[in-house]
């Protein structure tokens, strides 16, 4: 999928889909040829016919754990309890339960064994009880709600009956005062969805706020998630009420509950399937291009040097290795008539000899995949939009055919890239963001998009490095930096701008001039060293549904800043590394949020105490803001350019000791499906240390358990402990270890220790020599780095502020001029007009000129202090801009409590001269007013 640069007409797209590519199938998928692909279902359209509901409950019966409700309008509903925390709700307007278009595609696992349920008639409602839930069935009219087992703590509640027309069904749910929502698949934009309306539909536009791989799934901070069991497109409005619509005359959904977002993801993927376990080479950088440009059928540039026939790709592989540049796989054909030069096997073998695997890109189908995988040895598939672009079940089945083509013709694991995924795609494929551009703006929304995909269980989500159109050396380098901390990433060669600046040729990282070449190498090498850490994190995803690339809310669900889009520009790579990408042409990164705990700058060793905001972080082009959580235990490989290049004869554990912490390393053969039968090993490492100050740091390394082909019988270990002072003693199992006087002596020794105070504020290195069983390393008499508090928020001087606009202000009956909202006196107020006729309706707003440009990071609001209560701001939005006409998205949204106390809210730090505060609601709901005694800001001057 790409080549949108040609902007093909629908007819041309169908022609492209029907092309017979050299070596690829003339026929498409088993069910339908590509040229006969069904049209994508339209995005939600205008409803047809009158709106109807089920009416009142007239009957309630039970059969096992299936409860059937009959309604006065002829509709029936079923509640099927699958587990104490999982149930299905199916509402059929015509009273039959035969229309089940999704079958087991989206919910392949629903039998979890016996589950104890009871029911009772509570008068106004029937109550179905599991060990975890109370499901209420209101009688007049039929509505559903779910409470915790106590029957008093709400999880979700319908505000009105589910309704349907001839072609659309909508559920209406109450929205909690601070309830937040996540999910909907690979949405191209921010991941906190409260107040947003999200299309659950395929459009193949691939721009901000589109959905590259929609999923009919969302979850809530109330502790539940829901997957609509459908192929129909829809739209979710996370407003008040929340409206959840799909284009079909039926309602069918699976509900999952838990005590955390992680447990909800676990339950959701128990039913819809756990994320697949990619081969290790799939974690390495991939490269897609056409290396058969001489093919007359090819629709691209026929004259590209070194791209004339498929074996030319081996020259590029040689270039990568000559540049000492890690990368792991090629897609040497790109569909659209490119095809590949036969015989394919010789090229695949030549790439394998250089440490590269081969995948194939298909725009027409998979008719030759048995030979491509079983004989030639290809190991990956990229499904193109020209084939599967109609989406929904057609795309889902195409991906499944690709999986079968790999796994039925080899012992390899599935490795498929696709757009237009759906719920359940996490078990089959990497999803990616489509045809995007090498711009700072595209990079900006890619960070929350790829991070947010994990909130739908999509562990492998990606966007082409620097897009496929345009681009520059600087955008490429910055984009590669942060994507190196995600599980899967790929670069698309040959489709960007031609030589926009010196040293830029095409989009392989080794074809750039300095300094870009060295920076690209630095981050690709770091990813290879982090392979055991990132691989373990993806194993956690495979077992629990919790992704490797994590939105801050997954790790800090109770932190109000982490719950929303204030942190959408950063993410956790696994449980220990905080990544804050630089997505503009700058060398200073503002607005890095560090949650509670200690955080160490990966590059300098400087340690901070959260929670709080870090502004002014110095991030020249070679520096990605990267922080390590206190207590982190991060396993690392020796440096290598591809999996298997070197034996892992020494495993390094990079440790930031802080209290008690642990890590459970996962290893397998990295290639085959033997792990599914238990062929893998684990090793647990436990660290005990002071929480601050001085003391002993002890690392207890467990013996590896389990076995797999290639597992080392023994190996060496190195520990890099980030401590502030040299230890008094170092022991292994109580025996002293020799201290060495220099780094050179340490490097030459088989065992020993060396402390370097100049290395990132202090690093203690310990070598153990070869070990096969459990052992304990202890460093006595050392001290931990002191953690400095984050810089305090600085008030912005209000003496230069002036009023730009207030939509309403009372000046007749009382002195309510809007300037009193920032005059420094809590005894004066701004109040919207009330004495001259009908007051203006909400929302109200005030716009303020700050007199100079500031990087603003916090807002204070003091409600009126004169004893009055009306006008207290409830729901609000805050904007900061350099323009009073183009405000951009809000830097904060929320709801203030209905009290007289001073309020503060953290802002997503943004630089600008103008402030806009919008009052969306009145806190007490007493009237259409707004008032404020004082508005304050924190931040720092910005050039």
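Q: What amino acid sequence fits the structure above?
A:
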């Amino acid at each position: 999928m790409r080549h949108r640069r040609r902007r093909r007409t629908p007819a041309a797209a169908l022609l492209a889909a029907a092309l017979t590519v050299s070596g690829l199938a003339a026929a498409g998928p088993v069910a339908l040829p590509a040229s006969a692909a069904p049209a994508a279902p339209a995005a939600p359209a205008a409803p047809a016919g009158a709106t109807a509901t089920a009416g009142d409950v007239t009957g309630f019966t039970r059969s096992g754990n299936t409860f059937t409700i009959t309604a006065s309008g002829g509709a029936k509903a079923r509640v099927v309890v699958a587990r104490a925390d999982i149930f299905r709700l199916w509402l059929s307007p015509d009273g039959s339960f035969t229309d089940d278009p999704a079958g087991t595609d989206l919910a392949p696992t629903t039998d979890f064994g016996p589950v104890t349920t009871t029911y009772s008639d509570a008068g106004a409602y029937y109550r179905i009880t599991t060990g975890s839930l109370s499901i209420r069935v209101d009688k007049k009219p039929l509505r559903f709600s779910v409470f915790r087992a106590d029957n008093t703590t709400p999880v979700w509640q319908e505000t009105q009956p589910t309704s349907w027309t001839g072609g659309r069904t909508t559920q209406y749910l109450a929205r909690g005062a601070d309830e937040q929502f996540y999910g909907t698949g690979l949405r191209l934009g921010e991941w906190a969805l409260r107040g947003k309306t999200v299309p659950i539909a395929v459009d193949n536009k691939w721009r901000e706020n589109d959905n590259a791989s929609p999923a009919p799934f969302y979850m809530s901070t109330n502790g539940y998630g829901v997957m609509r069991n459908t192929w129909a497109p829809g739209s979710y409005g996370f407003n008040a009420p929340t409206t959840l619509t799909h284009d079909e005359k039926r309602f069918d959904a699976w509900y999952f509950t838990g005590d955390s977002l992680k447990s909800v993801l676990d339950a959701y993927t128990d039913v819809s399937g756990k994320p697949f376990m990619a081969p290790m080479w799939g974690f390495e950088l991939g490269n897609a291009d056409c290396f058969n440009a001489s093919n007359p059928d090819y629709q691209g540039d026929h004259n590209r040097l070194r791209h004339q026939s498929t074996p030319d790709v081996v020259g590029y592989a040689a270039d990568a290795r000559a540049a000492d540049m890690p990368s792991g796989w090629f897609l040497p054909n790109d569909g659209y008539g490119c095809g590949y030069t036969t015989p394919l096997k010789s090229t695949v073998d030549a790439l394998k000899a250089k440490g590269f695997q081969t995948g194939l890109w298909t725009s027409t189908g998979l008719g030759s995949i048995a030979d491509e995988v079983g004989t030639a040895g290809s190991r990956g598939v990229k499904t193109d939009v020209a084939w599967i672009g109609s989406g929904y079940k057609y795309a889902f089945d195409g991906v499944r055919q690709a999986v079968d083509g790999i796994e039925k013709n080899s012992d390899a694991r599935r490795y498929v890239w696709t757009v237009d995924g759906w719920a359940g795609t996490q078990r089959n494929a990497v999803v990616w963001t489509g045809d995007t551009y090498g711009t700072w703006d595209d990079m900006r929304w890619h960070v929350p998009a790829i991070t947010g995909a994990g909130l739908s269980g999509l562990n492998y989500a990606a966007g082409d490095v620097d897009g496929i159109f345009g681009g520059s050396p600087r955008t490429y380098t910055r984009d590669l930096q942060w994507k190196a901390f995600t599980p899967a990433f790929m670069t698309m060669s040959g489709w960007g701008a031609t030589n926009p600046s010196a040293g830029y040729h095409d989009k392989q990282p080794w074809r750039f001039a300095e300094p870009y070449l060295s920076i690209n190498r630095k981050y690709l090498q770091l990813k290879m060293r982090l392979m055991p850490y990132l691989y373990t994190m993806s194993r956690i995803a495979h077992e629990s549904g919790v992704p490797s690339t994590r939105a801050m809310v997954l790790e800090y669900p109770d932190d109000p800043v982490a719950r929303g889009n204030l942190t959408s520009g950063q993410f956790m790579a696994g449980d220990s590394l905080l990544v804050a990408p630089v997505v503009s042409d700058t060398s200073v990164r503002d607005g890095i949020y560090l949650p509670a705990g200690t955080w160490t700058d990966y590059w300098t060793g400087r340690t901070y105490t959260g929670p709080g905001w870090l502004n002014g972080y110095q991030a020249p082009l070679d520096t990605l803001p990267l922080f390590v959580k206190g207590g982190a235990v991060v396993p690392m490989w020796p440096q290598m350019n591809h999996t298997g290049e070197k034996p892992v004869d020494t495993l390094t554990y990079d440790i930031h000791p802080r209290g008690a912490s642990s890590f459970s390393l996962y290893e397998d053969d990295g290639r085959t499906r033997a792990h599914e039968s238990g062929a893998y090993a684990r090793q647990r490492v436990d660290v005990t240390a002071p929480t601050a100050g001085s003391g002993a740091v002890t690392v207890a390394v467990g013996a590896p358990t389990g076995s797999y082909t290639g597992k080392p019988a023994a190996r060496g270990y190195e520990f890099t402990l980030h401590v502030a002072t040299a230890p008094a003693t170092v022991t292994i199992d109580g025996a002293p270890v020799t201290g060495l006087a220099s780094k050179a002596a340490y490097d030459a020794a088989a065992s020993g220790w060396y402390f370097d105070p100049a290395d990132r504020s202090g690093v203690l290195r310990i070598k153990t020599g070869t070990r096969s069983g459990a052992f304990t390393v202890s460093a006595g008499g050392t001290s931990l780095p002191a953690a400095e508090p984050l810089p305090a928020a600085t008030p912005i001087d209000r003496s230069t502020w002036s009023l730009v606009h207030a939509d309403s202000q009372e000046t007749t009956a009382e002195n309510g001029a809007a300037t009193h909202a920032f005059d420094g006196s809590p005894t004066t107020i701004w109040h919207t007009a009330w004495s001259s006729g009908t007051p203006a309706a909400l929302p109200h707003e005030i716009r303020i000129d700050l007199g100079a440009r500031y990087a603003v990071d916090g807002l204070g609001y003091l409600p009126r202090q004169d004893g009055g209560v009306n006008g207290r701001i409830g729901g609000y939005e805050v904007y900061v801009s350099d323009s009073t006409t183009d405000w951009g998205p809000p830097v904060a949204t929320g709801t203030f409590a209905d009290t007289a106390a001073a309020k503060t809210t953290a802002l997503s730090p943004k630089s600008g001269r103008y402030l806009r505060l919008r009052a969306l609601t009145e806190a007490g709901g007493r009237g259409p007013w707004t008032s404020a005694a004082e508005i304050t800001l924190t931040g720092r001057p910005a050039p």
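Q: And what stands out in the fold?
A: Confidence is low (pLDDT under 50) at residues 1-47.
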